[in-house]
Amino acid sequence: MTTSSAKKKIAILDDYQGAALTVADWSPLKERAEIVVFGEHVDDEGNIVE
Fold first, then answer.
1. Phi-psi category of 28—alpha, beta or left, where left has phi over 0 and alpha has psi -120 to 50?
2. pLDDT of the residue at 43
3. What is the 3-state secondary structure (H, E, C) of the chain?
4. Per-residue pLDDT tens for 17-50?
């Protein structure tokens, strides 16, 4: 099994209320992942992948 030292990316979609980062403790993931919150709905599949 191979492991990667690169940070994973976590996308939180459709957070129109801006609450996602306040309703859970994300601190355990901060060292291992980049968390990006999208407040607007993204329809385009290419933009979601990006």
1. alpha
2. 85
3. CCCCCCCEEEEECCCCCCCCCCCCCCHHHCCCEEEEECCCCCCCHHHHHC
4. 999 999 999 999 988 999 999 999 888 888 777 7
